[in-house]
Amino acid sequence: MNILKATLYTGLVLNAALITTPTLAAKFVAADTSPGTQACMAVASNKAYKLRATLRDLRTSKAAINKLQCNNLPITEFVSLYNLNKSANYLNIEATTRTSIKDLAKVNMPTVTIITSPK
What we know:
The chain is mainly alpha-helical. Helices cover about 50% and strands about 10% of the residues. The strands form two sheets. Strands 1-4 form a two-stranded parallel ribbon. A two-stranded antiparallel ribbon has the order 2-3. The longest helix has 19 residues.
């Protein structure tokens, strides 16, 4: 019975450690200060309040942002590629239609992505 308890507790501790381990995300850096890059950076922040504030500051709409290209990708592909679900929800973009397989055991190193947009 002690072996069963030890195995159970070990499993619980390992699962708790896996759940609380932070995942390393991509780091976004703006290439310039153009309005398009500012909008792409707001989308990349994955925070609806930052995106809303940037849209207000740039005096643009969600419809205009949906036509924007970030790093030569349509905005729908950009949010899907970097799993920017909150930005996708705010912009009414269906980002969950793609199916992909991710290696969860792979060690994730943070990557730096430079954000650009057409001028």
